[in-house]
Amino acid sequence: MNVIKSKDVINILKRALNLIDERLINHGERVGYIIYKMMEYENKYSQQEMLDYTISALFHDIGAYKTDEIDNMIKFETRNIWEHSIYGYLFFKHLTPLEDLAETILFHHIDYNKLIKFRSKHEVISSYLNLADRIDVNKITSKNIVPEKFYRLRDIQYSGHALDLFHNAQLRYHILEKIEDNSYQEELNQFLEKSVFTSLEKEQFLQMLIYSIDFRSEHTVRHTITTVSVADQLGRLIGLDDKDTYNLHYGALLHDIGKISTPLSILEAPRGLTAEEMEIMKNHVAVSELILKDYIDEEIVQIAVRHHEKLDGSGYHKGLTASQLTLPQRILAVADIISALYGVRSYKTSFDKDKILSILTKEADKGKISAEVVDCVKKFYDTLMENVRSDCKEPLQKYAAMSDSYESLYNQFLELI
Fold first, then answer.
1. How far apart are CA 187 and CA 192, in angstroms?
2. Rg (CA), the chain
3. Which of the four CATH numbers 2.60.120, 1.10.8, 1.10.3210, 2.100.10 does domain 6-196 have?
4. Are 113 and 155 in contact (CB under 8 A)?
5. What residues have CB less than 8 Å from 97, skipping those under 6 apart?
6. Is the dihedral of CA 146, 148, 149, 151 positive or negative?
7. Where are the domains of the chain?
8. Which of 54, 70, 154, 250 is paired with 378 by a 20 to 30 Å CA distance?
9. Residue 71 has pLDDT above 80, yes or no
């Protein structure tokens, strides 16, 4: 079963991140294209190496989505410019199959004369990424291929080899002209379509995106893991076939992807949401549909975006009724509620078993959620939640390790720089 294609994983990442700030993903695409053409001219990398380095360049600023520094980062005028490099490094190292390339992201803002002191095995590509990033941010055009100020900083801020390589690649491939007329996008997309990921690698990339919605929020991470765990288990217990089980798993994994556009002040409000804030929060479902459509099997999309619908038509975002909601969609709706009730927030503790089952029963009796699914939950609740705790253990340990690593790396980084 191969519902999600490798190229579509990249497209989902691009579309989702573009909703945060289009400057960054468009910036990432241009930088990725520059790196790709530099490597093509150099003619010493395998196609797989070129793909991996280009993908890393494409998402080299993913850490900025968690540091509230986009404006300053684009201007390169903040002393905390390293924060997003460290976050991006941690995302790639711990959450993607490209962990070996994470250092290219960590070092992409380091001056060349300092970079060489780290003796990184990815020093060369890091120097290319540093130059490509500055070329794009400084809006270098085909009329001024590399300004004199860049050459004055040869082997100081920029690698002399990288400067010469870009100059030669520009003369051969007209990189800047293609960026100026946007024709580079089709060429870049055609190259990226050669990527082939395993099922595990696809899931890793998608998890990176989901975790990046708010890396600083353990609640967000725990909610996704719990929802997926409960949904997977209920699907098996109720007897879904292999296709529906697969679809339910990915629908659960992606069900809150639209929250990438939800303001952090709402995601992490230290209280219940106001009516106005709730309307903004509800919009995450429509955003999820916008991100996923065209790239994922429609059944997965609809499982993901219907988790707030109710059987009586009182849910959102389309007010659907029982006849329009499939069993996998009903299962995810219940799993999401269980996760929300079980989770800890600043304004609520985790609800105990009796309270959770009482709420679910009342909702089922009112005809809002599936009685069949709730009966299954009641019958197997203890096993379900024991497995949730087990499923959450490793990801949350990884999350904690990443948080600790950030603080340590940040302090070490500033001392060395």
1. 9
2. 23
3. 1.10.3210
4. yes
5. 197, 198, 200, 201, 204, 205
6. positive
7. 6-196, 213-402
8. 250
9. no
